[in-house]
Amino acid sequence: MTRKEMQEVAQRMLDVYSGTLFQNLEFESGNAEEIIYDFNCPEYEELRSKYNLIRIAGKGSDFIRAKRLLHYLAPRLTHSSWYDNHIECNALRLLEYSLDNPEQGINCLNKSKILVECCLAIGIYARRVSIMPFSPYDFDNHVVAEIYDRALEKWIMLDPTTDGYFIDETKTPLSLLEMRSRFANAEFITYVHSAASLKDIHKLRAKRMDTNTYICKNLFYFRVEKYSTFGEKKSYLYFVPRHYSIKRTEQANLKYRIENLPAEYEDIRKQFEERAARAEQHQEPQRTDIQSMEKKPI
After folding, report:
1. C-alpha 225: how far from its chain's center?
2. Which of 17, 143, 219, 228 could be cross-linked to 108 through a Cys-Cys bond (beta carbons 3.0 to 4.6 Å apart)?
3. Distance between CA atoms of 176 and 154, rounded to whole angstroms?
4. Domain annotation covers residue 263
């Protein structure tokens, strides 16, 4: 298959995923919740000094500084989709384990945790967001970071797995909700690498069609950590389109994963089976009103 043919296939898939978002634009109303951003964790001092975060971030807007951190960290963290999350989930432990160590890769969940905590450590509002697909028949979702830029007065998505972000036709960096709306309404949007030239964004869009399609697939609903802090509190807010069941999707997804597990990952079958058994007892998660995700933190 030629590159042009591959782009055409990706475009057709993008149209399908965009159409799914278009038919599910409205989110369920829910509880009004506050997302907590903690800038006072004592561990941040060690994180700043050990990894020279202030020097790396440099001067500029929140977005510019966070983008420098993104571009510093992303290439030095090897990706491993099947990483088992055995390292304590905080930036200090994860960086000790994985930074500049290609034999010890980590997944998007943990890469995003590193970036969020590094941003918080230098005073940038940041949060970790799981972005989720519509279909239960999918081995994959994704996890990214969002930072708040006080100059632009908006949220911006940063992806430490791909070392990039998304822009519109004016080259403005976008939030997850802006990305979702633009994909749904077939408006201009494209992924850009953090070091890429923005001279010809239409050419860039064609070049990055696979990434655009992949991210669009995973913008159906969102899970946001309620507490953005050092380490994990495992308290989440769910932002979900109307009439969509997370519980039924989770049950079908685990069944799909068990039945289609690649042979080389047979050793983790028991983990999926245990999760499937627990999922039977789960309640449908409480919904949070989408305004809580849109809200400016200051």
Report:
1. 12
2. 143
3. 11
4. no
Q: Is 73 within the bounds of a domain?
A: yes
- pTM value? 0.96
- Long-range CB pairs of 29-34 (<8 Å, 24+ gap) are 29/287, 29/289, 30/238, 30/239, 30/286, 30/287, 30/288, 30/289, 31/286, 31/287, 31/288, 31/289, 31/292, 32/288, 32/289, 32/291, 32/292, 33/226, 33/237, 33/288, 33/289, 33/292, 34/292
| Digit-coded pLDDT (tens) for 31-47 | 999 999 999 999 999 99
- Domain with 145, as residue range(s), is 3-244+286-294
For residue 272, being part of any structural domain is answered with no
Say how many domains are in the chain: 1
How confident is the model at residue 167, as a pLDDT? 99
